[in-house]
Amino acid sequence: MLEARSVNLHYGAAQALRGVSMVAEAGKITCILGRNGVGKTSLLRALTGHQPISGGSIVFDGQEIERLRPYERARRGIAYVPQGRDVFPLLTVEENLHTGYAPLKRAQRYVPEEVFDLFPVLADMMRRRGGDLSGGQQQQLAIGRALVMRPKILLLDEPTEGIQPSIIKDIGRAITYLRDTAKMAIVLVEQYFDFAHELGDRFAVMDRGSVVFSCGRDDMDEGALRRALAI
Ligand SMILES: Nc1ncnc2c1ncn2[C@@H]1O[C@H](COP(=O)(O)OP(=O)(O)OP(=O)(O)O)[C@@H](O)[C@H]1O
């Protein structure tokens, strides 16, 4: 589905990704773990096209897409929920959801019922401004807005950051549903180990711009995974 092959990424002279390879598959949750500043967000931005890569390639459904602009990748089905959510504070919940229409053909420009089934709070708050929602509600809105695009793959950057436990559970349930029922590919960048551990099918640990450890749920050695995270 979506693959990074030996990806390098620079900010000026500083190298943030060094030969990173990873694969995200349909119906699977791929977790990217690691401390602050190791390159997790940079990897997502490389996948979405928000930051150009300086080496390697990105392959989506068999085609190299590293030269495509972010909106072209969105049109192909790559959705991104950034860290900090980037909800438009002065737009209503409904208007925020409608911004997800941008890559869609006219006939598809409606909010799928699934969004409200997963996050009923959004239906109750359609006329509220995004900026008036709690952090957890904003996170649900940001995921809902991404789902409006009918993506094939959803990239989530620390969706649990600063969010209360009951909403973390709702988000976990939504991610599981999208994997199991909608057969979506999910890439989950997470610092909250237990959340990733509960949901993940594959795990990659990053350190200083490289993937230093990876494993699947079936061949997982939890001790080795935790040790890699403690580097
Ligand atoms: N726009 C930028 N310009 C210059 N350097 C940057 C920029 N964004 C990130 N970096 C640097 O690139 C490295 C990787 O950062 P990145 O945000 O990808 O890490 P991260 O693992 O996502 O961290 P966090 O968990 O704090 O979000 C860091 O050293 C960071 O300071």
UniProtKB/TrEMBL annotation:
What InterPro entries does its record include? AAA+_ATPase (IPR003593), ABC_transporter-like_ATP-bd (IPR003439), ABC_transptr_urea_ATP-bd_UrtE (IPR017780), BCAA_Transport_ATP-bd_LivF (IPR052156), P-loop_NTPase (IPR027417)
Q: Which GO terms of the molecular function aspect are on file?
A: ATP binding; ATP hydrolysis activity; branched-chain amino acid transmembrane transporter activity
Q: Name one Pfam family in it.
A: ABC_tran
One of the protein's GO biological processes: L-amino acid transport
- The superkingdom of the source organism is Bacteria
Provide this UniProt record's keywords sorted from A to Z: Amino-acid transport, ATP-binding, Nucleotide-binding, Transport
* Protein function: Involved in beta-(1-->2)glucan export. Transmembrane domains (TMD) form a pore in the inner membrane and the ATP-binding domain (NBD) is responsible for energy generation.
Give the family from UniProt.
Answer: Belongs to the ABC transporter superfamily.
By what name is this protein known? High-affinity branched-chain amino acid transport ATP-binding protein LivF
Gene of this entry: livF_5
